Amino acid sequence: MLKLFYASLTCALASHIALEETGADYEAVRLDFGTREQSSPAYLAINPKGRVPALVTERGTLTESPAILAFIAQSFPAAGLAPLDDPFAFAQVQSFNSYLCSTVHVAHAHRMRAGRWADDPMAIQDMQRKVPENVGGAFDLIERSMVKGPWVMGEAYTICDPYLFTLSLWLEGDKVDVANFPKVADHMRRMADRPAVARILEVHRG
Amino acid sequence: MLKLFYASLTCALASHIALEETGADYEAVRLDFGTREQSSPAYLAINPKGRVPALVTERGTLTESPAILAFIAQSFPAAGLAPLDDPFAFAQVQSFNSYLCSTVHVAHAHRMRAGRWADDPMAIQDMQRKVPENVGGAFDLIERSMVKGPWVMGEAYTICDPYLFTLSLWLEGDKVDVANFPKVADHMRRMADRPAVARILEVHRG
Q1: Which of A143, A131, A204 shows the shortest CA–CA distance to A171?
Q2: 156-185 in chain B: CB under 8 A from chain A
Q3: Alpha carbon separation from B130 to A191, B95, B107, B136 (Å, rounded)
Q4: Based on CB atoms within 10 Å of each CB, which residue in A58, A110, B90, B121 is the most buried?
Q5: Tell me, what's the pLDDT at A120?
Q6: Confidence label for B95 from pLDDT (cuts 50, 70 and 90)
Q7: For testing the chain A interface, which of B86, B105, B117 should be mutated: the one with the most A CBs within 10 Å?
Q8: Hey, which residues 36-55 in chain A have their CB within 8 Å of chain B?
Q9: Is the full-model pTM beyond 0.90?
């Protein structure tokens, strides 16, 4: 059985929702970032990166949200979470998720994880000050040129949707007003209405 | 025919090599970052992100290296550039490429592109100072726990290899000594010996 390691409302929420949407059996194991459980020897033995998500399978452990999300879609094709038989459409899904991972998540991380990239407290403050501009700019591009509506890829709900939803939940903390992005705001409401999303949000907020 | 937009020795090199390895016909269009051609209206109409690579196909334009690399592998299955029929093995490929994109490339980018995340010149200096530590740390993890050898995924040459090679070429500029990472150094030598790699390197350096 698949085992997902996550921490509350981190980017692992996307993989958690995707797993729940498949209807498959899986186990979810919560890490406490407050006590830095992600850096414990026990967890580093599972994922040397000391990050979440990590998905433990019968064949080994997978990390990185875009890879885990595509793996979930390919492992449970009946759930229809990605256009698996169309390389171009699949690449569009992957392009969107890669942008969230390498640009949007990174822009956001310069607020609470700025110490990854600088040591001087003044430098860290300057990086944090720029977060609303960078995260807002990325969501502006998402609004204008990426979200087709009602779901990210159009009529089909895919692995892009829980990932966008997860990063949208961070906007308020990043001091970016989602009201500036009507399609993203509508997407958040649609997501919250899905039973699988509501169940997993309750787990993360519990 | 596929058309790849690239700039010399940027991360687009990975997609360029992968295309060349397939033996397919394609056109490569060079952008001059020196004159900020990536921000020209003409290019922004092709890729609103103003970045490379961008791969123009009959059905539209794809961006983000991990997505383009997987698309190349899926579009030219005879080239054998990814384990397409094995979701777990494919996810391992994707996980590696996602790490390069979202962690290693980002760590590197804090040297020449630090202005993306801060404005204060002192902050930018502090970020640049930390680049060797961050890039070196990422390559240490790659060396210890990711590269199986002789290729990234073991005996099979995949889309992970041109991507690792591309980022390895940046090590010297980042003041990270590749000699600290014998498997990565060996990988660089093996890559340089491949005819397709030598041809594309010559194009990028020309």
Answers
A1: A131
A2: none
A3: 39, 25, 9, 10
A4: A110
A5: 97
A6: very high
A7: B117
A8: 48-49
A9: yes
